[in-house]
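Justification of computing resources. Each target in the renewal requires a structure prediction run like the one illustrated here; the chain below, 182 residues long, is used simply to show the kind of job we budget for.
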Amino acid sequence: MFERFTTRARTVVHTAHEEADALGHRTVGTEHLVLAMFSAGGIAADVLRACGIEAGELRATLAAGDDAAALRSIGIDLDAVRESVEQTFGPGALERAEPPRRGGFLFRRTKLSNRFGNDAKKALELSLRVALSMKHNYIGTEHLLLGVLRDERGTGGRLLRERGMTHDRTMELVKAALRNVA
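Resulting structure tokens:
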């Protein structure tokens, strides 16, 4: 599938793995794809910035985690849980261990598709559909962004929609950017 991806789109896929690792996440989700779009540059990064989306703010939101808010809503206080666990097992008992160092690029490359979560797989599939609907024979970062937004379940799309982005408005911005490039 990656043969249609532009160099920047491939960079997004690769960098998304690094973003997931940096956040201590085992699977690569749409949120990691969005963060990686900033690093790769191109139309997606320009559109995200034009919409007022900032990588640092998204990363901070993900690092804080939605889990804490969800647990608080059902009466579970994570600070109290952490304190109790540390009293029993010692300070730092819940700290994440460093992710294991992996081999070189070839090893990571062979494992890329195994780490994608269902939302990221769906967004990649949708990015192909978006590209075809636009009559493009490649998948660029702009198609990845639109694929993320079209996926209703993914965290990346949800975070973007919470910040005011819509698929239709993003499509307008992408088309305008493509006209400016041509």
